[in-house]
Amino acid sequence: MNFKATVHIMPRPGILDPQGKATQTGLHQLGFSGIKEVFIGKQISLHLTAENEAIANEMVEGACRRLLANLIMETYSFEIEKV
Amino acid sequence: MNFKATVHIMPRPGILDPQGKATQTGLHQLGFSGIKEVFIGKQISLHLTAENEAIANEMVEGACRRLLANLIMETYSFEIEKV
Lengths: 83, 83
Hints:
The structure is a homodimer. The radius of gyration of chain A is 16 Å and the shape is elongated. Chain A has 2 helices and 3 strands; from the N terminus they run βαβαβ. By secondary structure, chain A is an alpha+beta fold. The first copy, chain A, has one domain: Phosphoribosylformylglycinamidine synthase subunit PurS (Mth169, Chain: A). The A-B interface holds A 8-10, 20, 23, 26-27, 30, 32, 34-50, 56, 59, 62-63, 66-68 and B 8-10, 20, 23, 26-27, 30, 32, 34-50, 56, 59, 62-63, 66-68.
């Protein structure tokens, strides 16, 4: 079975996010003064094949923990859908 | 009113995604051979204040078009929620 997983990786609250700060400054300079805070993370789309949804889930969980997310500085979540 | 917007920015289909390819290779080397394709984009969380949801929507749309997304290479979508 084929699945598509969408993984969301964000900096943990309180962790310095210099890319977010720089973007916020850029937005203010463009006149978007209503935008108060900016946090930048990653969105990763995975296409995978697995026997069933439970195995796909385990595979994505493992990929997040072992490679995709830095658990010290980031949190992750994901959804899986059958395609 | 305060809003939180979540912006999803992904490489357009067909655009070379070297970061995705490198991640895919890394996942295969770790034994995740079921993961066939990897696409890496950005997820941006914005906290903003605006008079109403329509104005907040317009603000986020403008921020995406003018700074956050590179429309030649990327597509974007977003949700807004009142906080």
